[in-house]
Amino acid sequence: MKPQVLSKMGRRTTEPPISWLMHAALSRPKLISLAAGFTDNTALPVAEARTALNQVLRSPKTGQPALQYGITAGDLALRKLTAAHLRKLDFQAVVSSSFSSSSLVLELKSRTRTRTKDEDEKIYSPERLLITSGSQQLLYLTAEALCNEGDSVLVEDPTYFVFLGILQSRGLRARAVRLERDGLDLAHLERVLQSLKRSGELRRVKLFYLVSYFQNPTGVTTSFGKKCGLLKLLKKFERAAGHPIYLLEDAAYRGLRFAGNDVPSALAVPGAAERVIYAGTFSKPFATGVRVGYGILPKPLFTAMKHIKGNHDFGTSNLLQHLVARALASGIYGRHVARLQKRYAQKARVMKLAIKKHFPSAVEWWEPEGGLYFWARLPRGLATGMKSKVFSTALKNDVLYVPGELCYADDPARRKPNHEMRISFGSASEKDIREGIKRLGNVLRKLLK
Ligand SMILES: Cc1ncc(COP(=O)(O)O)c(C=O)c1O
């Protein structure tokens, strides 16, 4: 037998399908990519980052600590600023929210409003906030700290395909829970949990992964009522599982809201914070190249993940952390996010008008209130995958989208839907959005005849 050099993980880990899409976008200059999850190049805060960096490097007193190694958990000033920022976001979201008037939610809302300063300080504490190299590292660390090979993770159906890559690479299984326009289908979640309990697999479920704001890929935002229901259900099944079942709330796009009211995070659900892992990032709302993310973690997880991060990199780039801290403290960050929201509102409007004008009426599409993505569903039978006629014809016409099937986990309980697409208004110019949607619309019209 040939000796194996690579570890099991080294052999198992496949190239992410998105690599091919990225390569196609970069190697064909005429191609209009509505596939990339990149943010808008022209909106990147070059002058603002220069100002913040100048402030950091103004004197040896401020510059030297930034150019030195830091500590594994992250710069304390940034952790304090981030915790305060998140606490304020959640407080404002609870106070100004217009969420569902069900009695459960109203009760939770009043309990959240009256939560004491002490309780809040415990939840949004810099002591349980870990700075990571992008929120991607937080997602990876969570899987590493909680899951063994062969364990199962509950995910939305569809979900962020890079997270599916983590599961594949680490030998984890996924169980998918249906998604509705306002978030998870809770009745389906209960059925999935029941079936896992019956089969004995619940003992191997530690985690639900939820992309809660303007989800990648569908643009769906999970309502606060559904977050409450989700946490309640997970709690209900803990006894059968024999251990806590955590909610990993990935809020990567939260800052990019351009319509409607902010929704409180799962940390704001009274009594639930010990089961919530909140993953946030400064990538999307500030600069994707900076890649500073963070997690608010239950204390036992904070300790374990900090130790594991110590082995990964013993700390995220200190200079970049100082840059973000300056941007937050000086107001540069807040002003930039406000500008960005207007920019994406405009681009989303352009995409919506183009879709209305060019897509055949048989195509159903979902409009987001923020983030970077529209989601379109073709009539069943018209596949959109990389080997499909739709995809190859679109490519021939120099327009690219993300095939929906890449975002569905391998779950034996259902067949993967293959007739959807993610279309992004993030990186393309307004002119390219109009032209790209027109080309895509022409392809769909032709193939739907
Ligand atoms: C849903 C989701 N989560 C997390 C990330 C990772 O972002 P970052 O590591 O830059 O914070 C992305 C990036 O596209 C994403 O779409």
What is the CATH architecture annotation of the largest domain?
Answer: 3-Layer(aba) Sandwich
Which spans of ≥5 residues are poorly predicted at pLDDT below 50?
none
Number of strands: 14
Overall average residue pLDDT: 94
Q: In CATH, what is the class of the largest domain?
A: Alpha Beta
Shape verdict: globular
- Which percent bin holds the helix content? 40-55%
Q: What's the name of the CATH homologous superfamily of the largest domain?
A: Type I PLP-dependent aspartate aminotransferase-like (Major domain)
Largest sheet: 8 strands, mixed
Whole-number count of domains: 2
Helices, by number, come to 17
Strand order of the largest sheet: 2-9-8-7-6-3-4-5
Distinct ligand kinds: pyridoxal-5'-phosphate
Please name the CATH topology of the largest domain.
Aspartate Aminotransferase, domain 2
How much of the sequence lies in strands comes to: 5-15%
Structural class determined from secondary elements: alpha/beta
Distance between the termini: 55 Å
Q: What is the gyration radius calculated from CA atoms?
A: 22 Å
Question: What does the model show?
Answer:
The chain folds into two domains: about 10-45 and about 335-449, Aspartate Aminotransferase, domain 1 (Alpha-Beta Complex), CATH 3.90.1150.10; about 70-330, Type I PLP-dependent aspartate aminotransferase-like (Major domain) (Aspartate Aminotransferase, domain 2, 3-Layer(aba) Sandwich). Helices cover about 45% and strands about 15% of the residues. It contains 17 helices and 14 strands. The chain has an eight-stranded mixed β-sheet with strand order 2-9-8-7-6-3-4-5, sandwiched between helices. It is globular, with a radius of gyration of 22 Å. The chain starts with 7 loop residues before the first helix and ends with a helix. The model has no long low-confidence stretch (mean pLDDT about 95). Pyridoxal-5'-phosphate binds near residues 37, 134, 135, 160 and 283.
